[in-house]
Structure formats: structure tokens, C-alpha cells
Design brief:
Length: 624
């Protein structure tokens, strides 16, 4: 009998079936569809074999032909079901969900499937068997052939149309799967003795299983947890179907005791095991030290998270601190992109436990708006540099100034740096922004007008992040050379945070620039942790007293002594002092009496655009 190929195929499908169900699986829509396709393929093959056996029995041994007809009908109906599931498997996630035309396409294909199944059931069917040629025919079979061809062609077309929306390997797997089916159907049509369709469908399943549903890339080799890739697919899937989920995420900082790789690895394993022990929900390792578990129900998440906290409090031999992020309802984020942005941003938070809420999402959106604003300003040349003159007490003129960045909106409004510098520092945009500001300052100096009106030096702010970057001094020297600027005209303002980070590298870079003639100031002195060590060992020319520090002078007797003493010490160390934020005549007088060299503040001028600044210099310094 002509059933050898079918038996082989049945065995193959059975193997896939066993492997697929034994694996650790994520509850994804595609996987559910694949599961249905495997089951349909298995049952279809079983009916294929049964129908061949019964046809032979009816033709040769007089078996009841009514039963054989029913089995033949079931077989072809299942065959069409397979084609239909193939179409659903491919089109889900590719056809847009909300578009009216896509809905119409979906309804059409569901409709012809239902209609086809009813027709196959009602229309007559016949069969024949002679030697190895065994097949059914008649109107019912014709409907089955027609529908199968429609589904295969539709599936191939969708695959081709949306090829750019799927990874290359998915595209190839889909085409191979459908192509093999089509080829088998054509061969079987021409040569009815070759019953290839059943075998081809099982072969197609093998391709899909190996290429798409094999979860090895979804599993983290060392912990057995799901990977970031798996999380990404899972989260996209949930959002696509509008399903809410909850997440418990933890970024664990294994304390410095774990310097040894093996010990750290075992700590990671213990964390992973603890997560798996929490329950059947899927656990992911999304970074070396970041884990998360997803829940369908937020109460369950709260319950589990409380468990973790208890375990952590009881286990004292795991020296780890962490940031724990609870997301009770994923739908407060607009989609997967915002979800991942949220996850990565808030896992970096300094807080130990953070619960996602609408305010945090709004904050993130605001941050993202600013990020877009900075990119847009860089692209469309809307980054501007304002200048604020410093009054030189000894020389009674304005020979230094600070360059302060602004972004000009399309409507002419100005955005102050306080709103975008901290975000630019977080996103890394500070690198491009810093380069742009420095370029503009060099261009301004290269025109020579400011120099003509007595400007000797411009101070440019540099963030810590700009020093973390590879070759941080490159952009300074490049622009100084390009615009033929005397390096002595440039003073870079750094802050204590900059100086505190990778101090060695910082010093190396500073000295490189100092050799060329560039000088440095320590900005914002008096805020945060002021450490005498910073300026004792830092090659800075000036110390800038922060706005709040100088302000305190007038409110607090003790600060008065500290400030006066500090100015004295700095002078003994040959450093100059710039007092920031001076707004009144009285403040000017006090600063002068204290012996401060430079005074910067609204009393003299706010930061102003380039042309106003030139006019200011001209008015106050005259032709120097
Ligand atoms: P900063 O470097 O300490 O700059 C001094 C700030 O004090 C400026 O604010 C200035 O407008 C303000 N200021 C000066 N005198 C007075 C005064 O008398 N009263 C008051 N109320 N404020 C005064 P601005 O321009 O808003 O800049 C804020 C901060 O943004 C700067 O503080 C600096 O840390 C940062 N920044 C500005 N431009 C850049 C830049 O190009 N790169 C980097 N990395 N940071 C920058
Ligand atoms: Mg500054
Ligand atoms: Mg300052």
C-alpha cells in the first residue's frame, strides 16, 4: 500500500510534537498557532493514512464505502485547515491589526475557510484505487484543492509583501515551507501515485520548528532563564494583542566582594534559581545583572515580590544590593518601545524599590521629548551660544566671559540649559552638543571682533561625560587648529563630579591641554561635596564660587568665615576666584573687599546673544 511516506511523516511530526511540548515555552501567540498547526498536521496525516487504507479496503474487499467517503472528507477538510492555519500563522503580526482593509482581508479568508469546510462536507466525493494509485475525487475534493492553492498563494504573497517586516531567516523559512507544499501539491496533481502532500507538510513543520520555534536563542546558556530576545518578542506580542501584564524586575549589584568570576557566576545562578522557584511565570535574564519575571495578574506579582523581599532579608550570605522595579500594569506605557525605555531608565534609578505609575511615565515622555528636541536642534542648527561677561576687578573691565548654551525653538522661544543638559548627559547627546558649542565659540573668536573689544578669554563648560569619552580632548584641539585660535583664549569649566570620575584619565587629558595653553576652572565650588583635595591636586587656574555659596555669605555668619578664609587660601595657592550669581551693588562691594578677582552676575549682565555681547563689550571696554 502507498502509505510508507505518510508513516514516516507521522513519525517526524510525532517527534516534533514531543520535543516541542517538553521544552520550556513562552506563552506567545505564534507558538500557540504553531502548536495548533502541529496538531492539525498530525491528525491530518493520521486521516490520510486511514483514508488510503479504507479506499483500498472498499475497492478490493467491499468495505462500507459510506464510511470511507466520510473519512476521505475529513482528510481533505483537515488538509484545508492546515492551509488555513498556515495563512493565520504567517499573517498574524504582519497584517496591521487596526486598519479597516486588513480587517476585511481577515474576514474574507476566515469566511472562505468556513464556507469551504461546509461545501466539502455537503458536496459529493468519490474515490479510486488501482495498484499504487489511490485518491479521492469529485466536487468536494476540487473545493479542497482550490482552497489549498488559494491559501498557499496568499501566504506566499503576504510573506513577499512584508519581507522587510521580518527577520531574514523567518522570511526564508516561510517561503521554503510554503514552496515545498506547493511543489508537492503540483507533483501529486500530475502524478497521483506520488502521495507527497502529507510528507511535505511534515517536512515544512520541521523547517519552521528548527528555524523559528526552536527556542535555543530564547534561553540563556548559563542560567536557563529566558533571554532579552525572548522578552522582546514576548512584550511585543502582548502589546500587539492589547493584553496587560505585570513585571517584577531587579537589577542586582553584587557587592565588591564578588570580584572573582566564579563566585559572581554562582551568585548569578542563585538569583536565577530563586526567581525560578518563585513560581511558574516566565523569568528572564535581560542583562548580566538584571532579571525580571512577568505576570498576568498584578496581585500575584505583589505577592511574589513580597516573597523575594523576605527571602532577601533572610539570606544574609548573598551580599547584594538591588534596584527593584514593579510594573503593575504594562498598559500605562504606550507600546513596547516606551516599555523598554521605561525599564532601562528606571532600573538605573538610585532608589531601592520603585513602582511604575503614570507620573513616572509622563516624566519619561518629557525626557524623551527633550531628547528629540536636542537631536532636532543639533540637526537644524538651533543650538545657540550666549555669553555672560565677567567683571575683572583689578583691571576694571570685562575681559573674560562664560559661554552658555541655549536651544532656540521654532517659535523663537529659548530653552535654558537646566532643562536639557542633565538629559543630554544621560543620553550621551552631551558629546555632540559639547562639540557644537565649542565649534561655535571658536568660530566666534576666530572673527576677532571680541578680541578687538578687549575679550581675553572665554570659559566653556565641560560635563563629566565628555571626559568619559574616547579621546576627549580631540574636539578641543581640532577646533582650535581649524579656527586658528590661540589656546590661551580658552578656559574649560569642569565640576567636582567630573574631577571625581576616573581621576587619572581626567588629569592626563587636562595636562595634555594645559601643555598646549588651554586653562581650566573648577565650576560650582561650594555645592555638593566640596573636597579640598579636588583643587589641591587639580591643575585649575580659577575656582568659581557657586551662586548659592556666595548667597549664603549674606545669610550665614559661618559661611562668611569659610568664604573669606577660602579666598585667602586660594590666593596663597596662586588661584583666582570667580564669584557667580552676583546681583546687587552690595554683593559686588563685599566680593571686591574680599579680594575676588572676577565677578559674574546679573548685576553686570545676563547671558546674552553674540551680537548683544559684542555691543556690551564695545560699550563697557571701548576699543581696547
Ligand atoms: P554654570 O556653569 O554654573 O553657569 C552659571 C549659571 O548661573 C548660568 O545659568 C547663568 O545664567 C547663571 N547666572 C549667572 N549669574 C547669575 C545671577 O546673577 N543670578 C542668577 N539667578 N543666575 C545667574 P545657565 O545659563 O542657565 O546655565 C546653567 C548651567 O548649565 C551652567 O551652570 C552649566 O552647568 C550648564 N551649561 C550651560 N552651558 C553649558 C554647556 O555648553 N555645556 C555644558 N556641559 N554645560 C552647560
Ligand atoms: Mg560654568
Ligand atoms: Mg557655576
Amino acid at each position: 500500500m502507498n502509505i510508507e511516506l505518510q508513516c514516516c511523516a507521522l513519525f517526524i511530526i510525532f517527534t516534533i510534537f514531543v520535543m516541542f511540548f517538553r521544552e520550556k515555552r513562552l506563552d506567545l501567540m505564534n507558538r500557540k498557532l504553531f502548536q495548533s498547526a502541529v496538531i492539525a498536521c498530525f491528525v491530518c496525516l493520521a486521516f490520510d493514512i486511514l483514508s488510503i487504507v479504507l479506499i483500498n479496503m472498499s475497492v478490493h474487499n467491499g468495505f462500507n464505502s459510506g464510511i470511507t467517503r466520510i473519512v476521505c472528507k475529513f482528510y481533505i477538510m483537515l488538509l484545508v485547515l492546515q492551509g488555513y492555519l498556515g495563512y493565520v500563522y504567517v499573517s498574524t503580526g504582519l497584517l496591521p491589526r487596526e486598519k479597516a482593509w486588513a480587517k476585511a482581508v481577515r474576514i474574507f479568508f476566515h469566511g472562505i475557510f468556513a464556507l469551504g469546510e461546509v461545501l466539502m462536507l455537503l458536496l459529493p466525493i468519490d474515490f479510486t484505487a488501482s495498484g499504487r494509485v489511490v485518491y479521492s475525487f469529485g466536487p468536494s475534493t476540487a473545493v479542497a484543492y482550490a482552497l489549498s492553492v488559494v491559501y498557499i498563494i496568499t501566504t506566499i504573497s503576504i510573506t513577499l509583501i512584508y519581507r522587510l517586516k521580518m527577520p531574514g531567516r523567518r522570511f526564508i523559512a516561510m517561503l521554503l515551507w510554503q514552496g515545498i507544499w506547493l511543489l508537492a501539491a503540483v507533483i501529486q496533481f500530475i502524478e497521483p501515485e506520488l502521495l507527497l502532500v502529507g510528507f511535505a507538510s511534515s517536512f515544512g513543520m520541521v523547517i519552521l520548528y528548527i528555524q523559528l520555534e526552536n527556542p535555543s536563542e530564547f534561553l540563556d546558556g548559563s542560567t536557563g532563564l529566558f533571554t532579552t530576545n525572548a522578552l522582546s518578542v514576548y512584550v511585543h506580542d502582548k502589546y500587539r494583542f492589547g493584553k496587560s501584564f505585570s513585571m517584577f524586575a531587579a537589577k542586582i549589584h553584587y557587592l565588591t566582594a564578588y570580584v572573582d568570576y566564579n563566585i559572581e557566576q554562582s551568585a548569578v545562578m542563585r538569583t536565577a534559581r530563586a526567581l525560578v522557584r518563585l513560581g511558574p511565570e516566565p523569568a528572564f535574564r535581560i542583562d548580566d545583572d538584571t532579571f525580571c519575571v512577568l505576570y498576568d495578574d498584578k496581585n500575584r506579582m505583589y505577592e511574589r515580590a513580597a516573597n523575594i523581599k523576605m527571602q532577601k532579608d533572610n539570606v544574609t550570605d548573598l551580599p547584594a544590593k538591588g534596584t527593584y522595579l514593579l510594573i503593575p500594569d504594562s498598559l500605562i506605557m504606550s507600546g513596547p518601545d516606551e516599555f523598554f525605555r521605561f525599564l532601562h531608565t528606571y532600573l538605573e534609578s538610585e532608589q531601592e524599590i520603585l513602582v511604575a505609575n503614570e507620573d513616572l511615565v509622563m516624566e519619561l515622555r518629557e525626557q524623551n521629548n527633550i531628547k528629540v528636541l536636542i537631536d532636532d536642534a543639533l540637526k537644524n542648527d538651533r543650538v545657540e551660544v550666549f555669553y555672560q561677561p565677567f567683571y575683572n576687578v583689578k583691571k576694571d573691565c570685562f575681559d573674560e566671559a562664560e559661554a552658555l548654551v541655549r536651544i532656540r525653538l521654532k517659535n523663537g522661544e529659548i530653552v535654558p540649559p537646566g532643562r536639557f543638559i542633565p538629559i543630554a548627559e544621560e543620553t550621551g547627546q552631551i558629546i555632540s552638543l559639547g562639540i557644537r558649542v565649542f565649534e561655535k565659540v571658536c568660530l566666534f573668536l576666530s572673527k576677532g571682533e571680541a578680541e578687538k573689544y578687549g575679550l581675553r578669554q572665554v570659559h566653556v563648560n565641560v560635563s563629566a561625560a565628555q571626559f568619559d569619552h574616547e579621546n576627549p580632548t580631540g574636539f578641543v584641539m581640532k577646533n582650535i587648529d581649524r579656527y586658528h585660535i590661540n589656546p590661551r583664549r580658552i578656559n574649560l569649566e569642569i565640576t567636582e563630579t567630573a574631577a571625581a570620575q576616573s581621576r587619572e584619565i581626567m588629569l592626563l587629558n587636562m595636562n595634555r591641554l594645559i601643555e598646549k595653553g588651554v586653562s581650566f576652572s573648577l565650576d560650582d565650588f561650594g555645592t555638593g561635596r566640596s573636597n579640598i583635595d579636588y583643587f589641591v591636586n587639580m591643575p585649575v587656574q580659577n575656582i568659581k564660587f557657586d551662586y548659592n555659596f556666595t548667597r549664603e555669605f549674606f545669610n550665614n555668619e559661618k559661611t562668611k568665615h569659610v568664604l573669606t578664609g577660602m579666598v585667602d587660601i586660594l590666593h596663597k595657592m596662586n588661584m583666582g576666584v570667580v564669584a557667580e550669581g552676583i546681583e546687587t551693588e552690595e554683593q559686588v562691594k563685599v566680593m571686591k573687599d574680599m579680594g575676588v578677582e572676577f565677578i559674574q552676575g546679573f548685576y553686570y549682565s545676563k547671558p546674552i546673544p553674540e551680537n548683544e555681547f559684542l555691543a556690551y563689550l564695545k560699550d563697557h571696554n571701548g576699543d581696547a
